[in-house]
Specification:
258 residues, alpha/beta, TIM Barrel, 2 domains, eight-stranded parallel barrel, two-stranded antiparallel ribbon, 6 helices, 13 strands, 31% helix, globular
């Protein structure tokens, strides 16, 4: 009987040691998971790009924001907005950004009239159109010229619409700080794409090293089914506004009619 307290003390000590070891192992396991890229599951997000030809998916029903490609202005004809949609969207549960893809910045006055007419048409349909997003692959060394174009567009854009742009990862890594600052004074948000086509850009992590220095509200654009591991500081960045998921056609994602 005299040994019982000692035995009990030993048991408690071993139990405490076991608890500490298990806690350490669980922490290490969590750290290991955090260092591995995870697959982008669109169901975990609420903002999406809907490009031309992409079929409807159930995730759109939970969307708070949808960026919808209306059309493009091709380098071969800078006076015509080529519509890529069969009709006007009819979405009443989410904010809508109308996206226009442009191949050069030498747009005619007719283009502006066509774009603004489309914005009015979408709004008249009952959609909550909050802004116009320009999708243009601006060269990092020409961001100052891009800012001039956007400033002129902003002056003509009806005041009820915000102005947004898509951005390249290279801007944050190699862009001139003054040029980036000039963009910040014009656009309401930029969405930086970490994918190309249907795949995440290899080595995207290195391009995000300077993301904290971006002087504008921004989002990160991810591709559905791609890989992604957020930088540790991203959630603490006051300019970070969340993610936009680029939806892709895949039988596993699509809505099938009965």
């Amino acid at each position: 009987m005299g040994q019982s307290p000692k035995i009990l003390l030993v048991v408690i000590r071993y139990a405490s040691l076991w608890f500490v070891l298990m806690s350490i192992l669980m922490a290490l396991s969590a750290c290991e998971r955090d260092t591995v890229n995870s697959t982008v599951n669109a169901a975990e997000y609420d903002s999406f790009w809907l490009w031309a030809g992409v079929k409807p998916q159930p995730v759109l029903e939970q969307a708070k924001t949808v960026y919808i490609l209306e059309g493009e202005v091709r380098a071969s004809d800078a006076s015509t907005l080529v519509s890529l949609r069969p009709g006007t969207p009819d979405i009443d549960h989410a904010d809508i950004w109308m996206v226009v893809r442009v191949e050069n910045l030498d747009l005619s006055p007719e283009i502006y009239s066509q774009i603004f007419a489309k914005l009015a048409q979408w709004s008249a349909q009952g959609n909550k159109v909050v802004g116009l997003q320009i999708d243009f692959d601006a060269n990092t060394r020409s961001l100052d010229q891009y800012a001039i174009f956007l400033r002129a567009l902003r002056q003509q854009l009806p005041r009820q619409y915000a102005l947004g742009i898509t951005g390249l990862l290279d801007w944050s890594a190699n862009g001139d700080p003054s040029a980036l600052a000039s963009l910040a004074g014009v656009v309401d948000e930029a969405v930086f794409q970490v994918y190309q086509g249907r795949k995440t850009i290899p080595g995207y992590e290195k391009w995000l090293n300077n993301i904290d220095d971006l002087p504008m509200p921004f989002r990160i654009g991810l591709v559905q089914g791609g890989e992604w591991k957020p930088p540790a500081s991203l959630a603490r960045n006051p300019n970070f506004r969340g993610y936009v998921i680029f939806l892709v056609n895949d039988a596993a994602y699509e809505i099938h009619a009965d």
